[in-house]
Model the fold of this input.
Amino acid sequence: MLEPIAIAALGKVITPILIPLATKAGQFLFEQTKPLMERLQDDRQCQGALLEYLKAKQIRDKELSSLSLTQQECAQELKKQELRDRRKLSALQRELMRELQAKEIEVKLTEIQTIWDKETWFSQLSRQETEQILLQQQQHLLVLVAPPEMSADCPASFRNNLKSELRNVGSFIGGHYSFNDEVYSIKFYGDYFQKPVSDIDIERLHRILSPIPTIVLYCDINDYTATFRAGIWGLGNRNVALFATQPWNWEKTYQSLLESGYTEVESLRFIRQLIVSIHQLLAAFWMDAYFLTIDSGYQPRLVKLKQEFADRGVAEEWIQPYIENLAKLQQQQLEREQQHIQNYRKITLQQEVLVVPKLRFFQTLQSLEDRDAILGIAFAPEGRLYAGSLQGGITLWNGLTGERLGYWQFQKAGIFAVAISPDFQVMAAARKNKTIDLIHLQTQQVIRILKGHTHELRSVAFSPDGKRLVSGSLDKTVKIWDVETGQAMATLREADSMILAVAFSPDGEVIAGGGRRKTIVLWNAKNGRVIRHLLGHDDYVRSLSFSPDGTRLASGSWDQTVKLWDISTGEEIATLKGHADAVVSVNFSPDGQILASGGKDSQVRLWNVATSEAHLTFNECTDTVAAVAFSADGLTLAVGCHDGKIQFWR
Done:
């Protein structure tokens, strides 16, 4: 055993030789597995499993976001379930890989005679053993170590011992990587090659064993240098990749050891041990890297072997670049999988069957006060529509007949938004004077006034159970109110931004808020914690609407666009362009297939959610379209305009 100072000195010499190999090797494996993964992703069975995984993940994400800091055990269990599901998905992908592999092996077995007879080199190999590898090693990663190519001038100590010592690579692998593991199985041969091999020989071998993922380690040693080499191919690789280190001047190391007081026998023995250890290091790295390319959840073993290598005289700085490259490879795999999941999610959204209603203009109703801007509208049962105006009045219309059923003005302060509870018992009216009226729709009486904001209200929304109300204000806060008591349950602050839009998710778990900071914030509705920020708009976010299934959020902005967001990931699904001015209002149809948007350009657009294309565009207003709303059956669209008109499209 060398002294630590001697090991450190050796590390400075050998580390620069080994680092480039680690960098090139990791990137090669990542790039080479891409075509195979794309083939798997087109498989229907894999797509079905991925869809099930996405559904389960969405449920878990919602549960995680609702947990408090004291519920760590539940959070850990959900994370474990996520890991189990990912491994289940990886297991299916590996099984599909093996099915592809089996077909390639079948073809190769029919070609083996022709390949074998073509070149005399194969006479050095065992034909029977090669066929057995093809027949039996489908489940394995094959690791082969060839005898070293040594010049006649090499020390006798090398020529007499090194070949047998390199077989210790097999015992090293067996001790740390299971030969019987069904998932990460390895088959090692230390005597498959009868003689040393060259790069050309490895390419020849690939012609026969290409269906079997294989690592071949070999080296060249002369009287003063040693070069370490590796040939590798994985599943689906059409070509073999050959890697080599820069020559290591072992003679200088030998002289350094002698000068440090070690005997000739000790010095040569230690150099042989280093050669074996470098083979073991390369084998460990390649095996870990290969398993990471087929399963991003795999835990590299090399990380736990640092001390064992140190005990054998291998400096930590030799190993660290390989560990770092494994971590990088794992991260790349995770990102690639995540990107695939997002791409698949977008594809499934685009493939949804869509039946688009043919809405036609029905009638126009005028507000009680001429040109009293309509800023908020909400449907009640039987086609009744409530409209709030800038002058502070609330008008009830029969949307089917055009009859005005009532008008109330409980306060003179302008109404910027209205919302009706899911049971149609209460309406909330957000006013310019910083208050919210809660109005009982049967008695047409204000049952309470919510006070607490310090600036004008701009948006209100009920929770699905009707027990909570969320409000957004120019005072830069979002408040959650108890509808029964009228008390503020929580005040949410995330940024120095006036809040222009709020929305409650259909399951009541998430609150969305947007405003002048161009950012959308998603909060956990139970504990008030920020879930994530949605970034992408270039101007104020003026309106928000959740899809009925809660998977998507639509946002309308002063940047003249509408964006669709994936709630579970925060990823932008699509940007809908077409408005010529700011988008002021967005609203999903009850079936989630249509999105309506209205803007300062006086236009109303109906978007096909699945394709992100505009289905209809109409322009009957002479001023800003401030509000759009669908009836409960989705057959009627109401449009509120700044010119005081309400339009109905059926």
Summary: Residues 4-350 form one domain. The longest helix spans residues 72-118. Confidence is low (pLDDT under 50) at residues 351-356. The two ends are 87 Å apart (CA to CA).
